[in-house]
Amino acid sequence: MLEVAKIKIKVNELYVEADSNDTAFSIRNKYKKDSDVIVLNGFQIKEDVPLKEADRVTLIKKGEIPTEKELENLMIARHTPGVFEKLKKSKVGVAGAGGLGSNIAISLARMGVGEIVICDYDVVEPSNLNRQQYFIDDIGKLKVEAIRDILKKINPFMNITIHKLYLDKSNIKSVFNDCNIILEAFDCPICKSTLSNEVLTKMKDTYLIASSGMAGYYSSNLIQTKKITSKFYLCGDGVNGAKEGSGLMAPRVAICANHMVNMVVRILCEEIDV
Question: Ranges for the THIF-type NAD/FAD binding fold domain (predicted)?
């Protein structure tokens, strides 16, 4: 009888030895028979597939609350290989927790950024609910506290630092100390200018991603990411700010926010050409 060759694979991010004739389904039956979802090399499969050396199989049971390590492994499994490790090492600052900032923070959390620093002095108001990632029972809460609680529901193990203050020249550097990247998420033009000037002139090793133009319901395709300098990127359409007859609405605000987060990922993965 011929001996079956062995291969080394990862099951839920732990190395195991498998037979060369093993399949995704046979591994499921061996390690987690009650799992509902099988992810092979970052892609959810519905039909059985033969396995090969260095494959990654992730087994998920729906409704099961994972441990910290299990959650991390699940995030690794769904990301492109190598991306999660780079994101986990990063520290990203978010200046403002309104329409842009709350959407940015949630996407950063879902991507697995290791540490987030969020600064805002305002409270959640009913008018914010048209575009900001808050709920009726958040009204009256400080935005930084409300978004921290929401992020903890997404990933209770991530590091979140909040600052309940108004950012100006005297505190920008201390608030965002050691951040790899800072995202400007203000409505106020003066605040945008102050933050940008301070970061670009006094924090020259830090990347800045700023925003301009995301109001109304104009074409989604007008919103772009532009490289301004080697450390400075600008997201938005550059034209359509909030004005009478053209308010800030959830779709384009969220599109711009996610342009900004995607640029964070590209920078951290050293894909810094736009």
Answer: 75-270
If 0-12 CB within 10 Å is exposed, 13-18 middle and 19+ buried, where does residue 58 land?
buried
- Would residue 78 count as lying in a domain? no
- Residue type (1 letter), 76: I
| The residue to which tokens 């309104």 are assigned | 98
**DSSP 8-state secondary structure symbol assigned to residue 207:** E
b/e code 146-180 from CB counts within 10 Å (16+ = b)? bbbebbeeebeebebbbbeeebeeeebeebbeebb
Closest listed residue to residue 253, CA positions, set 210, 209, 215: 215
Q: What is the pLDDT of residues 32-53, one digit of tens each?
A: 999 999 989 888 999 999 999 9
pLDDT tens by residue, 211-226: 999 999 999 999 999 9
Q: Which domain holds residue 14?
A: 6-65
Domain holding 171: CATH number?
A: 3.40.50.720
Total-model pTM:
0.83
